[in-house]
Design brief:
- This protein is mostly helical.
- The chain has a domain of about 90 residues: Tyrosyl-Transfer RNA Synthetase (Orthogonal Bundle), CATH 1.10.240.
- The chain is built from 13 helices and 5 strands.
- Helix 9 runs antiparallel to helix 12.
- The structure holds tryptophan.
- Tryptophan (TRP) binds next to strand 1 and helix 7.
């Protein structure tokens, strides 16, 4: 058996869906940048998960470039960390097959994301969508990752990963072979809402482009979208209590705070009493200063897709160097004659 288990290895995945927005940045990517100093980080663009629902091939490749560019532009160093696309390392699919034989139908039937995504037309959902969580477990356990930063919506999948690890270890009498990965819950992760409706999460699938700031928006688009952002007639209050029942105002204050890395109450104290017209101008300045350089860098990187692909392929090789010995052990444990 190959060596001792790691103690602080992070695996995290993002689907290449394109149109990354402010919610993705403030709620997720920005926080991973902070993890790189405390953990050995493996960041993966999960293209194999993406195809569990139909993806146009040209758009998929472009979205893969875009997510990789976003990671780098936001400050993830692809030399310090590993950054790659899932399909570059066949170990994910290989381990996922074994997990298809470990996980139980009953477990997967309970997954709320499958129910939401398959909707009423279950019969027409891809079988990949059903076993999606097994592939996610393989992503994490192929590296014996110990920590996984997850949002609320992925907690159930991480629980399932732990169940799969436990059953594998028990079934094969391989005590402690797979570690049970822990969630990394991000306290500071901002929950960013739509600019048109403070009760809805900012989302790429909202039909209104004015509902979100896209990471590649320029100063004019940022200014225009914020000018049109929904508000109410009252000036900003001086205390957080005054934002209750004012979801749009609250959201803009949260965005203003998160972009400057300060808490909401401190942010509010800087703009208390202002009319929205003035506050929005200030918010636009902050947003342009913070997002402008990231968007520019993303565009620069995306203009050179060969360079991005070279980074991803190199990352894929480094990823495989870690997972290959683990897969070899798994094959041995399962009783395959070997690789
Ligand atoms: N399912 C995750 C999502 O949609 C993406 C993902 C795939 C992931 N594999 C992962 C996240 C492994 C964390 C760890 O957001």
């Amino acid at each position: 058996m190959s060596g001792s288990n790691p103690t602080n290895r992070i695996f995290s995945g993002v689907q290449p869906t394109g149109g990354l927005h402010l919610g993705n940045y403030l709620g997720a990517i920005r926080n991973w940048v902070r993890l790189q100093k405390d953990y050995e980080c493996i960041f993966c663009v999960v293209d194999m998960h993406a195809i569990t629902v139909w993806q146009d091939p040209v758009a998929l490749r472009k979205a893969t470039h875009e997510v990789a560019a976003a990671y780098i532009a936001c400050g993830i160093d692809p030399e310090e960390n590993i950054l790659f696309h899932q399909s570059a390392n066949p170990n994910h699919a290989e381990l996922a097959w074994i997990f298809n034989c470990v996980a139980r139908m009953g477990w997967l039937n309970r997954m709320t994301q499958f129910k939401d995504k398959a909707g009423k037309n279950r019969e027409n959902a891809s079988t990949g969508l059903f076993v999606y969580p097994n592939l996610m477990a393989a992503d994490i356990l192929a590296y014996k990752a110990t920590h996984v930063p997850v949002g609320e919506d992925q907690k159930q999948h991480l629980e399932l990963t732990r169940d799969i690890a436990t059953k594998f270890n028990n079934d094969f009498g391989a005590e402690d072979f797979f570690p049970l990965p822990e969630p990394v819950i991000q306290k500071e992760a901002a929950r960013i809402m739509s600019l048109r409706d403070g009760a809805k999460k900012m989302s790429k699938s909202d039909p209104s482009e004015y509902s979100r700031l896209i990471m590649t928006d320029g100063p004019d688009e940022i200014a225009q979208k914020l000018r049109k952002a929904k508000t109410d007639p009252e000036p900003l209050p001086s205390e957080m209590d005054g934002l209750e029942d004012r979801p749009e105002a609250r959201n803009l204050v949260s965005i203003y705070a998160a972009l400057q890395d300060i808490d909401d109450a401190t942010a509010l104290s800087r703009v208390a009493g202002k009319q929205f017209k003035d506050f929005k101008e200030e918010l636009t300045d902050v947003a342009v200063t913070k997002l402008g350089p990231i968007g520019d860098e993303m565009k620069r990187l995306m203009a050179a897709p060969d360079h991005i692909e070279a980074i991803l392929h190199k990352g894929g090789e480094r990823a495989r160097e870690i997972s290959e010995p683990i897969l070899r052990d798994v094959y041995d444990i399962v009783g395959f004659v070997g690789r």
